[in-house]
Amino acid sequence: MKSTKTVILAAGHGTRMVSEKPKVLHEVGGKAMLDYVISASEAAGADDIAVIVGYKADTVKAALPENLTAIEQKEQLGTGHAVLQALPFFENFNGNVLVLVGDAPLVRKETLEELVKAHEDGGFSATVLTAVFDDPTGYGRIVKKGDELIKIVEHKDATDEERSIKEINSGMYCFDAQALKAALQAINSDNVQGEYYLTDTIEILRGMGKKVGSYPTPDVDDIAAVNSKVQLAEIGKIMRRRINSSLMEAGAIIIDPENTYLSVETKVGKDTVVYPGVITEGRVVIGENCIIGHNSRIVNSTIADGVDIQISTILDSFVDENTHVGPYAYLRPNSHIGKNVKVGDFVEVKNSVMKDGAKASHLTYIGDAEVGKNVNLGCGTVFVNYDGTNKYRTVVEDNCFIGCNSNLVSPVTVKEGSYVAAGSTITNDVPKDTLAVARARQVNKEGYALQMKKIKKISK
């Protein structure tokens, strides 16, 4: 195969999206639409990629990988005009140029590979990626004479007869670089919209005696593009089906794929059960034989084998083997949870380590802390890590027992094997194998309650 470059069209505002955000940066499956197109192009073997930016150009540029070329289209005068801005990118190149659109995130590397193969095998100067739609409204029509591609007509400019054609233009092409250069220099804006259409290059190339062709994708989902938030949701549903099907084929058990929202960068080990309503975002790795209970949310985190998570939120953290999380637990960023740990209901952990065998069964806050092996944190334990200006760290060493409703005021260390009595507020280090009691001594005033009752009766 010849060397291939890619030009991705990503300059449009997308007014039907009714959004200030550039259309191509709207997300599907936890990833910007443009990112999918870039990834598919790279996977299909593109040697170099340029992205045409326009609306909020700086925002789109900032979202691009550093190895890509960004080319600004200052005026949006049509697709032909957009590709013309990229002429310096390929004008001295002798190979293929893929022209793709940044709002078609379902395009796959296999489809692009087949497009390039059809282009080279057919000896074409241009090859159009096409599909057959039951309802082609809004799409450019593929006009053929027999199997020969004659021209592409935009829906707005098509006759009634041409609008009856079901085969449509995806807006994606493979060109011979030098043929594309010649055709772009000959396009004009003689149409209803007064724009420079890339589709016109097909007729121009035919007029030059060049051979042009088409490759109809067998999966029409490949070319589905987004022009509104309704379409964004529809494509999100297709992407969700693809992601979940791939994970199930790899061994995961997804109870209700239609209502499970896993990011494209999620990996799930075999025999892990994922219940409805689970959401993952970013890069998430879940091991084997886990249970991810309904309505749990996991973001940029790693979950090892055998973990049970119930109705909990985990952000930018690590959970080791055979640990139980939840229900209603909250692991905030930079939490590292060891093996056989229990993080129970309404427990919050932030920027902390809980080592193997540690337990916080309920109603506990662990912030900026290191909790040792086999430590038991009683109900209502609070790591008081913030003095209003600075945050400090607390260490509870191995095999300690912290009684209910205790406050550990940072910075403080509870040494190995120690006990903290329930209701204590610990402000000083606790030595090894010590019982720390930091609460007022109980005083019982017998008969006092009867006196109070009499006072209340008189006051009435």
Please, could you describe this protein's structure?
Residues 251-460 are annotated as: N-acetyltransferase. One of its GO terms (cellular component) is cytoplasm. Homotrimer. Its main location: cytoplasm. With 460 residues, the protein is of the alpha/beta class. It has two domains: 4-223, Spore Coat Polysaccharide Biosynthesis Protein SpsA, Chain A, CATH 3.90.550; 246-436, UDP N-Acetylglucosamine Acyltransferase, domain 1 (3 Solenoid). It has ten helices and 38 strands. A hairpin with a 2-residue loop joins strand 2 (27-28) and strand 3. Helix 7 (177-184) crosses helix 8. The termini are far apart. The model has no long low-confidence stretch (mean pLDDT 95).
Give the gist of this structure.
This protein is an alpha/beta fold and 460 residues long. It has 2 domains: 4-223, Spore Coat Polysaccharide Biosynthesis Protein SpsA, Chain A (Alpha-Beta Complex), CATH 3.90.550.10; 246-436, UDP N-Acetylglucosamine Acyltransferase, domain 1 (3 Solenoid), CATH 2.160.10.10.
Percent helix: 10-25%
Sheet with the most strands, sense and barrel status: 15 strands, parallel
Q: How many strands?
A: 38
Uncertain runs? none
Name the beta content range: 25-35%
The CATH superfamily of the largest domain bears the name: Spore Coat Polysaccharide Biosynthesis Protein SpsA, Chain A
Q: What overall geometry do the principal axes of the alpha carbons give? A: elongated
How many domains make up the 3D coordinates? 2
- Can you give the mean pLDDT? 95
C-alpha end-to-end distance: 98 Å
Rounded to the nearest angstrom, the radius of gyration is 31 Å
CATH fold description of the largest domain: Spore Coat Polysaccharide Biosynthesis Protein SpsA, Chain A
* Corresponding CATH architecture of the largest domain: Alpha-Beta Complex
CATH class of the largest domain: Alpha Beta
SS field, number of helical segments: 10
Label the structural class.
alpha/beta
Enzyme class: transferase
Catalytic activity: alpha-D-glucosamine 1-phosphate + acetyl-CoA = N-acetyl-alpha-D-glucosamine 1-phosphate + CoA + H(+); N-acetyl-alpha-D-glucosamine 1-phosphate + UTP + H(+) = UDP-N-acetyl-alpha-D-glucosamine + diphosphate
Organism: Eubacterium callanderi
Subunit structure: Homotrimer.
